[in-house]
């Protein structure tokens, strides 16, 4: 069965965005881009909330065509154009969206159907609201966290309204020159 892996930048105090969704504190550089690019290049399905999907859709389809496109922009744009996209949204339709499926109801059943299909891990990018919904239904199988060396004090938390403990098993760690530390966990259902 395929797994859902939540990919998220996080502050040391557990926030994934500032109070108004700000991400200006997130540190990304070529070292992180290269590392992440190797991992996601193996993925064939990206999962987003509506806001993150619309942000991605406004940039990645044409990012490789820009005159100042970086190697990362070109590679990620190619990946984005071929990957199957799943969007969690109660307000968006999927009538004219290529390679995109919108889930607006029966979240658990629809996600479990996708997890049963052949393919690679399903990568959940950003999307705190979608992440919260998936956590509440025990649908996330792993967390790939990039802990940024900052304390925000307030903002949008990664873990909110958790009903039961979620046991995790640490798979790998890596520290980057920027001070960001990667923590890769799997959910321990034992």
TrEMBL record:
Domain of life the protein comes from: Bacteria
Annotated ranges, domain Bacterial bifunctional deaminase-reductase C-terminal: 2-180
InterPro entries reported for this sequence: DHFR-like_dom_sf, RibDG_C, Riboflavin_Biosynth_HTPR
PANTHER family attached to this UniProt entry: 2,5-DIAMINO-6-RIBOSYLAMINO-4(3H)-PYRIMIDINONE 5'-PHOSPHATE REDUCTASE, DIHYDROFOLATE REDUCTASE FAMILY PROTEIN (AFU_ORTHOLOGUE AFUA_8G06820)
Short name of one Pfam family: RibD_C
Name this polypeptide is given: Dihydrofolate reductase family protein
Source species of the chain: Paradesertivirga mongoliensis
């Amino acid at each position: 069965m395929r797994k859902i892996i939540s990919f998220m930048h996080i502050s040391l105090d557990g926030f994934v965005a500032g109070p108004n969704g700000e991400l200006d504190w997130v540190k990304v550089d070529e070292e992180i881009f290269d590392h992440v690019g190797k991992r996601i290049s193996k993925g064939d399905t990206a999962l987003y909330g509506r806001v993150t999907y619309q942000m991605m859709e406004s940039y990645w389809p044409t990012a490789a065509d820009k005159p100042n496109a970086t190697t990362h922009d070109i590679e990620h744009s190619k990946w984005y154009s071929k990957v199957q996209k799943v969007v969690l949204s109660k307000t968006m339709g999927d009538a004219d969206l290529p390679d995109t499926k919108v889930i607006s109801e029966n979240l658990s059943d629809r996600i479990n159907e996708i997890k049963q299909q052949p393919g690679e891990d399903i990568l959940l990018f950003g999307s705190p609201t979608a992440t919260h919904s998936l956590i509440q239904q025990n649908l996330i199988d792993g967390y790939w966290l990039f802990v940024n060396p900052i304390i925000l004090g307030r903002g949008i938390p990664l873990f909110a309204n958790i009903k039961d403990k979620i046991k995790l098993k640490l798979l790998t760690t890596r520290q980057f020159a920027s001070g960001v530390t990667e923590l890769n966990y799997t959910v321990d259902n034992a």
